[in-house]
Amino acid sequence: MALHTWLLLFAAAVGLSLTPGPNGLLALSHGAMHGHRKTLFTVSGGVLGFVVLIALSMLGIGAVLQASVDALIILKVVGGAYLAWLGIQLWRAPPIRLEADAAKADTRSGQMFRKGFLTAVSNPKALLFYGAFLPQFLDPGRDLLAQFIVMAASFMGVEFLVEYLLALLAHRIRPLLERAGKTFNRVCGGMFVAIGVALPMT
Q1: Cα–Cα distance, 67 to 72 (Å, whole number)
Q2: Cβ–Cβ contacts within 10 Å for residue 99, how many?
């Protein structure tokens, strides 16, 4: 991949990562509830999920979804239902407390990783975006596998950094979030539910 093409890809990846989305909200809420170190598992799961979506798009699944209304509807409904369920769980979560959080430092890493992963792969808009967006940076005269690796690595790096910074920010303002913990949980939970409900309707 030519340097100028990669720079355009990098700029686009930064812009996409800074756009508010389900994984950014999840990283922020997990960072506030469990600390930025624990949230590394959530962020890693989300990044892996995005890599899976990129791989599927590169294999042509994005084009299949665009051509098949039924497949897109199913994916939207399933993805929306999961995001709504996640939002309800967050809405019901108890307020953030320093003592309670310390006592629950053994929050299962695998569960946090799974939430990050499923939140990413359950968003059909991301799959369609990658399917339409990534081909713009492909050079058919170059090794496609090598280009895929460069694209995936670039998106992974940018997404990981942005989500981790969100988690770190939430951890540092944790005393404020502790005072308004229930409200914070409900705002994030409500946004998850709103996204989950909106996905099947678009």
Answers
A1: 9
A2: 8
Q: Which two tokens stand for residue 98?
A: 């320093």
Q: For residue range 133-172, what is the model confidence (pLDDT) as tens digits?
A: 676 677 767 777 788 888 889 988 998 998 898 888 876 7
Band the pLDDT of 87: cuts 50, 70, 90. confident
Quickly list DSSP for 15-29.
HHHHS--HHHHHHHH
Task: Give the count of beta carbons closer than 10 Å to the beta carbon of residue 59.
Answer: 12
Give the model's confidence band at 27: pLDDT under 50 very low, under 70 low, under 90 confident, else very high: confident
For the chain, give percent helix, strand, coil, nearest 5.
85, 0, 15
119 within 8 A of 49, measured Cβ to Cβ: yes
To the question of pTM greater than 0.85 for the whole model, the response is no
What is the DSSP track for 36-72?
Answer: HHHHHHHHHHHHHHHHHHHHHHHTTHHHHHHH-HHHH
* C-alpha distances out from residue 195 to 21, 44, 49, 104, 140, Å: 9, 22, 18, 29, 36
Spatial distance between the Cα atoms of 187 and 163, rounded to a whole number of angstroms: 18
